[in-house]
HAD family hydrolase (Acutalibacter muris), 267 residues
Amino acid sequence: MRGLVERLQKVKLFVLDMDGTIYLGDRLFPYTKSFLGAVEESGREYCFFTNNSSKNRGAYLEKLCKMGIIISPEKMLVSNQVIIKWLKEKRPGRRAYVVGTASLIEDFRLAGIKLSDAAPDYVVLGFDTSLTYEKISKACHFIRNGAEVFGVNPDLNCPVEGGFIPDCGSIAALVKASTGVGCEFFGKPSRHTLDYILGQSGHSAQEIAVVGDRLYTDVAVAAGTQVTSVLVMSGETTEEMLAGSDIKPDIIAENVGEIGEYLRKNG
């Protein structure tokens, strides 16, 4: 590992990204379970946070279970939860048009947010793997007519086996190109996400390490704070991307297995 490795001694909670960090697509990395075991053996905790808004908490719990990782629901955090919490507090009673999968829309329904495909007060853009031209046309129409627009997560691409597919940030870029209106995002690296993690965990910033494979989300969410950022090179980021980026992690590891080895050696 490289960087300020000694900062891990103060860490009590590892907040772990998923795609590109603990698995790729439906393939669990071979070192993931060993790492999770090392965290627990060291007396620390871990939870998961994914920006991927195409699925909800239940879907991720099921996916992890199939991979042999069984956790309590409160240890599975999704960007969906961050934006829904904020909208309920800041836009109570207002109607939403959600460009998203059935899972994201169901999260909004369960939260009691009113949905409308005729006259919404705001538009929510998610990572919609069921995206259609009709959906995007409606969203742009509503925005041109004064509806606010919010994005769940800013990721441009989602890593999958064999490459990448367009994510929420790319959908938002399409909407902005058409309407001229950009949106505020709520997943990593927004301060909304960090505040949500701090509130849910009960830990101070210096007791938390965010681990992930992306500079502009996983690493950037910790920028300017006492949260430790750990970049793993098992996903999107290459050495060339790292060298050319203004966003720098506190620690760089080849993968989470390397972090686990450090914890076993250093406690």
